[in-house]
Amino acid sequence: MMEHAGDLRDGFGRVARRLRLSVTDRCNLRCVYCMPENPRWMPRDSVLSFEEFLRLARAAVGLGVRRVRVTGGEPLVRKDLHVLVRGLADLVGPGAVGLTTNGYFLARQARSLSEAGLRTVNVSLDTLVPATFRRMARRDGLRQTLEGIQAAEDSGLRIKLNMVVMAGVNEGEVPAFGRLARERGWEVRFIEYMPLDGDHAWERGKVYPAARIREDLGRVGPLVPLGSDPSDPASLWGFADGVGKVGFIASVTEPFCEHCDRVRITADGKLRNCLFSTAETDLRGPLRSGASDEELAAIMLDAVALKGPGHAIGLAGFRQPARAMNAIGG
Questions:
Q1: Please, are residues 273 and 289 in contact by the beta-carbon 8 Å criterion?
Q2: DSSP-based three-state secondary structure for 216
Q3: Confidence (pTM)
């Protein structure tokens, strides 16, 4: 692991220790909270190669980044993703590489990812009802996702489920997902519906607050806080009897911006210092023009230094990012 010559520190004293690499904007699903139904994909020649992602990751590790998560779009549509995972594991260690996926293609790739050094996989699963899956994803795929989860578990991967809860759509399934956490030992993370759909169709009224989710889970069993790392996007809670763990990513009603330690690089090589940023810093141009690791690091330092205090969702002046979640990286 490289020694770091300085920290990715912003003007509010926060230090970026986690990097999210979005390896593609493409996806086989069309989830309503993530992307338009008819997206315009990035040109293939604008998307970074695995070698380019590893160059940028190496520069970030040199600045103190200690954890890397591979996202998309759907990252498993990239051929031989395990090659990138292995390279990242060599940089930060196997336990420090994560993957977020919709799980559709996971059954055929779980073993190679595990052998490459992946230890934990976050699978997006918003419902256990086929019709609701079709409504939210605008495609079928529940069976394939569940098969992928099982294959990942069989391959020794630790499972986390990400459930985006939308009022009037799938909030009634919250207790069922709480029972999954207890019965299967999977950590279930309940995520508030955020304005990242790309169609700018987000409605505050469809946000199902984390506080209500916690109330609903009370029907499964009493919860107690577990004292999470404040820089973790999820506030972790456990059932009082010690069986089952859940998390809450409440970006809308309980924002955690003051502790944020993440930085993102999009599939086309743009650094974003906030998920909801309306500005980006180009890394692809310098990278492909022959910039050294030191020069790339300097660009990263300057970009993170400009990070604002928070996303300001719901406040006057908030602007939804022009990019949808699939093009930013989850």
A1: no
A2: helix
A3: 0.94
